[in-house]
């Protein structure tokens, strides 16, 4: 979602096979991670919502892992066929302990997709339970768009900012999935 948002494309949806493949892989590490980024907004959105491309970024899965759970997550990913992937960020100095793992998955429609998991090792991530999923707290999640996440133009991010400014918890709010009106 690094490309600029084009309002003419606001109704486009994520393919269900991508959502299903990503959820299957995320479920495998669920006990040891905190979900961030587009998937956190996904879980905070109303149940049964349409997966609009400009509402939630589902190109990758962003997670936080506590140091004591790193080996469990890495071994689970490797056992599921994930391999460590190099990124342009690997050579840069950073306070974040960042890792990327990728896997090619054959989906139900016989179309191969790449499932990318970006994980950050960190102990101090405020989070909540949303229907059994540990997700980053909205205020903290929004603070990550200045250094970790890049899709700050997503509908959910923009809506969450407005809701929190009004003192409204965005979890379950329909605004997280609504196409913004053009002013």
CATH homologous superfamily placement: JHP933, nucleotidyltransferase-like core domain
CATH fold-type name: Nuclear Transport Factor 2, Chain: A
Structural class: alpha+beta
Work out the strand percent: 15-25%
How would you spell out the order of helices and strands? HEHEHEEEEEHH
Placed side by side, the strands forming the largest sheet appear as 1-2-5-4-3
Tell me the number of strands. 7
Instruction: Calculate the mean pLDDT score and round it.
Output: 87
How many independent structural domains?
A: 1
Label the overall shape.
Answer: globular
Helix content, binned percent: 25-40%
Distance between the termini: 22 Å
Radius of gyration: 16 Å
CATH class term? Alpha Beta
| Count of helix runs | 5
Q: What oligomeric state best describes the polypeptide chains here? A: single chain
Note poorly predicted spans: none
Taking the sheet with the most strands, its summary is: 5 strands, mixed
**CATH architecture level-2 label:** Roll
Task: Describe the protein.
With 183 residues, this protein is of the alpha+beta class. The protein is 27% helix and 21% strand. The protein contains five helices and seven strands; from the N terminus they run H-E-H-E-H-E-E-E-E-E-H-H. It has helices at residues 16-29, 37-44, 70-79, 138-143, 155-165; strands at 33-36, 61-65, 83-84, 97-106, 112-121, 127-130, 133-136. The strands form two sheets. Strands 1-2-5-4-3 form a five-stranded mixed beta sheet. Strands 6-7 form a two-stranded antiparallel ribbon.
């Amino acid at each position: 979602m690094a490309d600029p948002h084009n309002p003419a494309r606001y109704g486009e949806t994520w393919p269900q096979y991508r959502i299903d493949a990503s959820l299957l892989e995320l479920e495998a590490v669920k006990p040891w991670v905190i979900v961030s980024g587009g998937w956190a907004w996904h879980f905070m959105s109303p149940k049964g919502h349409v997966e609009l491309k400009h509402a939630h970024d589902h190109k990758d899965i962003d997670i936080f892992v506590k140091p004591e759970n790193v080996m469990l997550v890495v071994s689970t990913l490797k056992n599921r066929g994930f391999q460590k992937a190099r990124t342009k960020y690997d050579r840069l100095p950073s306070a974040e302990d960042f890792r990327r793992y990728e896997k090619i998955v054959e989906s139900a429609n016989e179309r191969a997709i790449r499932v990318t998991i970006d994980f950050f090792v960190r102990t101090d991530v405020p989070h909540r339970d949303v229907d059994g999923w540990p997700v980053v707290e909205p205020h903290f999640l929004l603070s990550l768009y200045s250094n970790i996440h890049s899709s700050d133009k997503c509908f959910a991010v923009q809506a969450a900012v407005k809701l929190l400014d009004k003192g409204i918890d965005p979890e379950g709010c329909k605004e997280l999935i609504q196409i913004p009106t053009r002013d």
